[in-house]
Design goal:
By secondary structure, this protein is α/β, with parallel strands linked by helices. Helices cover 27% and strands 19% of the residues. It contains 11 helices and 16 strands. The protein has helices spanning 2-16, 27-39, 65-68, 73-76, 90-99, 127-130, 137-148, 185-201, 224-234, 302-314, 333-349, and strands at residues 41-45, 104-110, 151-157, 208-212, 239-242, 255-258, 280-284, 317-323, 357-358, 367-372, 375-380, 387-391, 399-402, 411-414, 417-421, 432-437. Strands 5-4-3-2-1-8-7-6 form an 8-stranded parallel sheet, with helices on both faces. The chain has a 5-stranded antiparallel sheet with strand order 9-10-11-16-13, with helices on one face. A hairpin with a 2-residue loop joins β10 and β11 (375-380). It is globular. The chain starts with a helix and ends with a strand. Bound molecules: ligand FHN. Residues 63-64, 212, 243, 258, 283, 290 line the site of ligand FHN.
Length: 438
C-alpha cells in the first residue's frame, strides 16, 4: 500500500512538473536579494512589435493583440517589418529611470507572441533578423545600464503563441494561429532553455529572469528544476522569479504580485493569498495597459502611484512600475511626466523607502510603516482625524518627529497603542511621514 502511494506521489510530481529540488542559494544570490530589497523601485518595460498596433483602437489590448484579435502567425509575422524604432535612445531611457529614482529595469526579452527583442541565434524570429531596425535592443540597453549602475532584468514569457512545439496548447493561442495540431513539448523547453542561455551569457551580469506565462498551463511539465538550475549555474547571482500567481516554487528567489499589493486579490490573480519569506515585488501599470495603447489615457495619478509604492514598501515589497514604449522607441511623454514627479518625491523622502524593510505594523487603511535599524517610518496616507492611534510596538518609543521639518510630534502611550497628534498644518497631500526612534 505504502509503495503504491509513493509511486503515485512520484508520478503526480512528475506530471505537474513543479520543482521539488532542494535549492540553496549561493552567497552571491543572497547578497543580490538584499540589494533587491534595498532597491525598492524599478521600471517594467513591455516593448515588442505589438507596439506598432498600439492596441488596434481598443482599450485594454496591447501586447495581447495577436490573441485578442485572433491574428494568425502568417499575418502577425508581417509586423516586425513595420518595426523601426529610430528614436530609441537607451541612454535617454536610463537617464529617465535614474531621475525617477528607480534602481533597476525589467524588460521583455520575449513576450507571449514569441518575438525575441534581441539577437537570438536559436530562432530568426527576432529583432535583428526580422525588422528594418536590425539592432539588438537588449544589448544597447545593457550597455547604457552598466554605465549608470542600473541593474537589468529580463522578462521571459514561457507561454509562446508562435512556436509550433508549444504543444499541447494551453488556455491561450488556440485555434487561430495556424500551427499544426501536433508538436514536441520537450523540444519547446529545450528551445526556451537555449534562449535563456543566450540571455545569461551574451549580456554580462544580469539582475535576473522574470518569468511569465506558466499560468497558461500550470500543470504542464515545465522542467523547472532544469531551467532554474541552468540559470543559477550560468549566473549564480541572478534572481529568478515567476509570475505564476502561486506560492513560489523551489529555485525561485523572489515572489511577485501582479497589480495587487501582497496578499490582496482585487485582480483575481493572487488566489492563494500566500506571501512568502522571499523578497517581494509588486508590478503595476500607469494606465490600464502593459504595452503601448494609443487610446488608453486612463492614467493613474502620481498621488495614487506614490501611495501604492509606499504601501508596497510597508509589506517589504518593491514597486515595479510599467511603461509601454511607443513604436518609435520613445517612452510616452505622459509616463515620463509621472516618473519625474515620483523621482522628485523620492529625492525628498527616499530615506523612508530605500534600504528599508517592512515596518512593525502591517499596512492598514490609514497607511503603512517601513523600518531601517531603530527608525520606524510611519507613513500616514489618509486620515480624516487629527490623531492617529498607532498600534502598540514591541520596543519602547524614544521620540517621534515629523520627517518634513524635524519638529517633535506630541504623543501619548495608552493601553491600546500610541496616540500621535497630527495637526492639519503638518499634513502632506500625499504622505505625512513620522520618524519614530526606538
Ligand atoms: O499576460 C501577461 C501580461 O501581458 C503582462 O506581461 C503581465 C505583467 O505582469 N503578466 C501577464 C499576465 O499575468
Amino acid at each position: 500500500m505504502k509503495k503504491i502511494s509513493i509511486l503515485f506521489l512520484f508520478a503526480f510530481l512528475t506530471m505537474i512538473g513543479h520543482s521539488q529540488e532542494s535549492y540553496t542559494p549561493s552567497d552571491e544570490n543572497l547578497k543580490n536579494r538584499e540589494w533587491f530589497q534595498d532597491a525598492k523601485f524599478g521600471l517594467f518595460i513591455h516593448w515588442g512589435v505589438y507596439s506598432v498596433m498600439a492596441g488596434g483602437g481598443d482599450q485594454g489590448i496591447a501586447e495581447w493583440i495577436m490573441n485578442q484579435k485572433r491574428i494568425p502567425i502568417e499575418q502577425y509575422e508581417k509586423l516586425p517589418s513595420f518595426f523601426n524604432p529610430t528614436k530609441f535612445d537607451p541612454n535617454k531611457w536610463v537617464a529617465t529611470v535614474k531621475k525617477a529614482g528607480m534602481k533597476y529595469i525589467t524588460i521583455t526579452s520575449k513576450h507571449h507572441d514569441g518575438f525575441a527583442m534581441y539577437d537570438s541565434k536559436v530562432s530568426d524570429y527576432n529583432i535583428v533578423d526580422r525588422t528594418p531596425y536590425g539592432k539588438d535592443i537588449l544589448q544597447q540597453l545593457k550597455e547604457a545600464c552598466d554605465k549608470e549602475g542600473i541593474k537589468l532584468f529580463f522578462y521571459y514569457s514561457q507561454l509562446d503563441w508562435h512556436h509550433p512545439d508549444y504543444y499541447p496548447r494551453g488556455r491561450t493561442g488556440q485555434g487561430y494561429t495556424g500551427r499544426p495540431q501536433h508538436g514536441d513539448w520537450d523540444k519547446y523547453i529545450d528551445y526556451m532553455n537555449a534562449q535563456l542561455t543566450e540571455l545569461l551569457t551574451n549580456y554580462g551580469e544580469v539582475g535576473g529572469i522574470w518569468f511569465d506565462g506558466m499560468w497558461d498551463q500550470i500543470d504542464a511539465n515545465w522542467r523547472l528544476d532544469e531551467t532554474y538550475s541552468l540559470i543559477h549555474k550560468l549566473q549564480q547571482g541572478a534572481l529568478v522569479g515567476s509570475n505564476h500567481h502561486k506560492a513560489p516554487f523551489p529555485g525561485e528567489d523572489f515572489q511577485m504580485f501582479e497589480r495587487d499589493l501582497p496578499g490582496e486579490n482585487t485582480m483575481g490573480f493572487n488566489q492563494t493569498g500566500t506571501i512568502s519569506e522571499l523578497p517581494l515585488e509588486m508590478c503595476e501599470t500607469m494606465n490600464g495597459s502593459w504595452g503601448f495603447n494609443l487610446k488608453d489615457h486612463n492614467y493613474k495619478s502620481t498621488k495614487r502611484l506614490i501611495q501604492t509604492m509606499v504601501k508596497a514598501a510597508g509589506y517589504g515589497a518593491n514597486f515595479l512600475l510599467n511603461t509601454g514604449p511607443m513604436p518609435n522607441g520613445e517612452i510616452q511623454p505622459e509616463n515620463v511626466d509621472t516618473l519625474m514627479v515620483m523621482g522628485k518625491w523620492l529625492d525628498k523622502y527616499g530615506e523612508s523607502i530605500y534600504g528599508t524593510r517592512k515596518g512593525p505594523i502591517k499596512p492598514l487603511h490609514w497607511g503603512a510603516t517601513t523600518q531601517k535599524g531603530k527608525t520606524v517610518y510611519v507613513h500616514v496616507l489618509q486620515l480624516a482625524e487629527d490623531n492617529l492611534l498607532l498600534p502598540k510596538l514591541e520596543q519602547k518609543i524614544e521620540s517621534i518627529t515629523f520627517f518634513d521639518d524635524g519638529t517633535k510630534a506630541k504623543y501619548k502611550n495608552t493601553e491600546f497603542g500610541t496616540l500621535i497628534h497630527l495637526p492639519y498644518d503638518k499634513r502632506q497631500e500625499v504622505d505625512t511621514i513620522l520618524k519614530v526612534e526606538l
